[in-house]
């Protein structure tokens, strides 16, 4: 199956974060067949460091769907409960550096457009799973990873090639559990990538900047219900606590040190007009240009949540359901990516860094590699997009896929050969 | 089918407000078979004055359920869309006053207890419709109405007997549409009733007092969504508007003129942590000891809703989804009820008025009858209850059912005969 | 000086709570000259149980004013710092019960009307101290107390007569410090009184009901100031904490057990538009028909204050600046008062209890006497008032003054003679 | 009097915005004595475009103080009510461009440090007007203006020299009224300046950037007072409206287009704990990196104020009490300033633009000149400061004063001679 077919098969079978059973099963099988040593599930993830797991019923339904779709049961069992990460290594013929590439596999909870002009409809590869859609290009990322794996299996090199397939990038939920398992602790060079964003086809950026550190939280307020007419004073009103938290979180100060964001995106509570509401659930996020400011901001948000609850006699449980850090790409590696790209005819415009202005949990991989003395970058590969990322009509120009495989081969060969001492 | 069997059949087939298709169908058939002239649907209700209709899908499912259960299709069609009120009249042999009795038919959205000691379980008549339950005794009310109708069909009297079977009492949603259709405009004497409350078995109250006027509202806030990191200023945040409304509604002043209540019982809004929420829905109520104070309070609540929306650039649609008024029972009729009860051996304790301390939309019937010169009361018939009203273990002592039929026959015979000029 | 002259002298020299130096000095001298044993200052008050002391500069200014006005310096020194309570006893010729009468002496911070038709202007006894005014009748209370003291000094009786002159009744600030010093611990019968309220001239009520328990608090929020443009995140915003407390205090639930009240009456904070405000001061009160509910409510208010502060990184100091309890007047004593009044020709209408619907710290005296087995009441003496209490045009009809002295003599003679075992 | 004596005299007599009577009187007299044609008062200001006038009592007190200090009464009368702006022109011997310099004269409401090491104390020129202080260097600006005026009176040149002495720069209150009177409508080159900021002595910046547009507002809420226990529902609570406005203003969204600020710096309302507060006053500001965003933000703030008031039945009057715009300095003029400075030995470090990161109403002059085709800049003259601007220990190194006069002479001679066509 060529890279285009592969990407279209993945596009037709989108799986949201921590339910990528069919996708990850396929990744395992392809990598094995190309001679890689493959690990997955609890061998490459710390289960409790995953963030924002879907309800177990949703995970189980996706599991069954993958099984019915023919996935290998032994592999599936190793991923049961949402342990859908995969790591593969290929050893070269001589000692040398470890060079890793990281790809994300998850789709979004979006209903794909039924417009007949939307290319996946016109060409018969639109989502078969209603309510899930590859609207951010991760189908392309995974396809690149597999085609690149195959290409490298035919190459001779020194050192170790490591391929990381991460679940649940959306919402910043999957990277931390792989990083904490140590999957990049031996990595000398790490290349992360993203298709599109707002770079045009034929452009490439060696790195990215302006990552926003981000934390996503779920807060659950618990009070006491009571009849709103008969005994309102016996209640402890969860919505009063939640509403005052919401206002005060938005009222947190602007920071002079750079841009920040806060948003309470979801609030749900109560059951009936004549009952003092005893529960309320809030989903929210904060972001900042600096990791430290984001931590400060998160701490202030948590303080407001807890005291807003306490002041109405409520308890408040707070869970981190997503996270991303900031990162600075290494100059040496950005240059190496661009130098490699200049040898690929396809690429004609070259940029040192492109501003992301958003959040990415690849930053946890990047920071870990750098902390241990390695180099890392986050390269952006321009492509024409039919609509903005996360839009029901999102689509990519597939020309970028084989070009990226070519580029990654070149990067791999440079880092694995010339850089080995 | 005797009154106990009848009540148990109704208990096993509970239908929430405006979905009483099976119940109302049965009421129509029973009344017709006893010689009553029966009207229903749009002939006895102004459709647009109904409050808080369930979603049409829920109404349609109940409709199909009743059809599958063998309900008469012609009758069902006349009630399509939730027009489940029924009015029956029986003319006496001579001219005379019109005497009406009003019964409510709806169940509650409560999952009935599965405790084996709960009588409906022990005796095999627990709810067959999961999530719906007669937890307020309206099954008993309807059974009394039908047994009383049958008993009266064998009697001779002057004047007109009128029986009103009202849907959707819970939440104050059904009475107004029947009153506005004029179904009590010709009524000289109106008897409304309720089983239980906190009167013990063998006690009876001729009337009730301390009705709380009440209004239930649904407010929908509409704003503009936007990416919470990329362009928060482009959003118009529906949850900010809703949260500030919630706090300010609860902060409305206490009234020196008597007790008031406000409660925002439900708030739901937003979709994801990284999206500025563009919609929020709020369900709330206000109450007061006086109708006028409740109107003042409702006006203040609406003012807060609208300005809370406007201050964040939102629109706010407000719908009244339930209403109840206050009422004062007529002394003459309270005495008549008690005098009649004293002839029934079953009743041993007699009370002029029992405080309700809650809301009832029978008050709209009572006020209308009184406005046009008639007399009305709301009598309470004591019975042992297994758990509080609206509790999953609620049950009544069925002894009160035949005793009430006897009482109503006596009241009817007095008012229809001796009171005719 | 007769009682009318006395009252007019007091009216012309009004002194607000804890600054009644001139008034109390005069009370001491008059009582001594009538043979009473007189205590004052720290001998009759626990200094730290006084509530809501004015600033020491204000106390000192009033002190100097009294000194310049000729007050006795030795007496003044015993009252320095606002210890302006006075207690006097007169022993009878035989053992017997202790019968106490309590009078309050303080004025209000109100600018008296300059309207020429206002009687104190027309008759030349309007306030000489601008911004202070006897607008609640306490000048009359004190005058009654002194005239009554003189009358009793000529009588023979058994037991002990005790006269209590309390400072700072307004705001519920003075009683507690005298009660806690034990000044009524030996009292068998206690008569408290108030002129006017809404009883007409010639009417008298033996007791009062519907006292509202009340607590008045001052909360001071302390944060950190910062330049609002240069470094807003370095501030800790006292007004954000105070504003969220204000909203949430008003949003506390209504109580089904009876009427409650909350009010944040004053909020002041911040210095300039471009400075994050580091301080805010809030003055507020809560009230309830029951002492226990008021305590519950006060606790909820304090919880909200503390957590509203904590959630914005502030501290909050809370001080009780006023208090009143509820009380129930003794039936026996109410009857005795009315029986006595029936012998005074002046009184023609008699009422068992008059509802106060307000707060009074005489309740602390009443509760203490009752706890120790004595009897107490709070009698209301009707008089025509020119404008409502606390209004700049308030004035009383002075006819009530000598009539009340006559009544109190009769009550004293009954309780001191016939009631002694 | 040399420039140092002059500055020290001004420092000892600080006058806050719109009360600069003594200062402006002195400016008029000095300029006249040097042959300038001088206008002031309503001839150079539109009275109603002044922002944030102090209370008239404060203005009048300052007026009397200046009169007692020997100011010319005719001049004073032309400035009565706070019309303290002055404009002077000196015509050259031939036609040519109009070159203007703008100086601000106002002090701050700060109590100057009494520390003996504070130079103005050590040298006997500390503020004689308690509570007012030159803590921002405007005394230096005015002294420079007068010494420069004198120097230029001895020079020959073509064109017109125009000197603008502006009142009330602090808070952005004075510039607009002079701009709207047209005082810079004929200006070809405009030089504004500021001492210190954070540039060291011997440094100079040709221009400034990062001006924050700013609006300062005063909002007055008016409701209805009522007794908080007797009739809370009759009140319309001004503090409830103000507190909800405060929270919601701080909760306005961050803007993706650049930094913004909001701050409610002052809130004051209410009179007593037992009175529903009927008035509240709020002083607040908003700022943004762009003039348009600040206008958007101001509009949102106003919307929140009005709807927060309306939702509690209040009215809200909003007054603009201060304003500043953004501005971009002209490249040509920045270069000219630096080129001139390079000829003055005193200056050794040269900077094209220094970021202000604050607000300045000189921006209104700059924008007006540029709109009409002229060039303008805002130059910063480094000096050692003893403490930050607006601090009670602020002081400048006076060496910068004569150096700046030298620089301005050079700039004036270049622009007035060589630039005339």
From TrEMBL, chains A, B, C, D:
InterPro entries assigned: Amidohydrolase (IPR017439), Bact_exopeptidase_dim_dom (IPR036264), Peptidase_M20 (IPR002933), Peptidase_M20/M20A_hydrolases (IPR052030), Peptidase_M20_dimer (IPR011650)
A Pfam match: Peptidase_M20
Signal peptide: none
Domain Peptidase M20 dimerisation: 220-309
Domain of life where this protein originates: Bacteria
Protein name: Amidohydrolase
Species the sequence originates in: Alicyclobacillus fastidiosus
